[in-house]
Amino acid sequence: MRPATMERRRFLTSLGAGGVGVVLLGACSSGDSGSSATTGGPTTTATTAPTSTTTVTTVEATDGAAASESVAEVQLLTVELGFVSAFVLLRGDEAAIVDTGVSGSERDIIDSLVELDIGPSQVRHVVLTHKHGDHVGALEGILAETTRATVYAGEGDIDAISASVPVSAVAEGDEILGLGVVETPGHTPGSISLFDTGTGLLVAGDAINGSGQVLTGANPDFSEDLDVARQSVAKLAALQPRVAAFGHVGPPVTTDVTAQLAALA
Description:
The chain is α/β, with parallel strands linked by helices and 265 residues long. Helices cover 17% and strands 36% of the residues. The strands form three sheets. A nine-stranded mixed sheet has the order 2-1-3-4-5-6-7-8-9. Strands 10-11-12-13-16 form a five-stranded mixed sheet, with no helix packed on it. Residues 1-39, 43-50 and 65-70 have low confidence and may be disordered.
């Protein structure tokens, strides 16, 4: 059982060719949560959204990548919702929300857009990395605010996701906001990740976890096929990411990401 009250924190992380910086942006008041979730697993019992943390990561193109900064740069807003994270990706003036937290999390996610100086109308994509309730619970609340957004998920999980709008199936090689879809099953059959070749940014859902700057694999207590999950970690290592964001709490990992994933695989 997780504590009912959790801190809301805000971080600013900046990554460029020369290094990485993380800045605590602020703290919001904590609230009550009815959740009984465990890291890396499904949640269906939450009646009140947990409290949130936000981190903004600016990820610039590596040497030899796209020359246009407006195209190459990606900003990643990490919204820690107590025990689970949602993300906002901003490229140019267009944004995507990745995962939505438990039911009731929508206000924290939408309010956090101010950190990127954008509004809900700029959110054109909502990506669900997998079907578990702690990642899709606030979908309807998010859609009520982001009325121009298309919803995406991996085909293997779509039938388990309830939505008032069609959910578009995405597969290996598809692109959303310039990031490639990577099929990373194991945690669930339809688990997906997003990877940006130019910057090395990986948003992996629950295909991986982490604590501090240390990465771990999929949670064995809530993964449907651990052997397949380990193969997915090996697949992510082969992409050679520089920054790894994952579905549960903690700022993105920016230290030896590829080496850590390779060791896990």
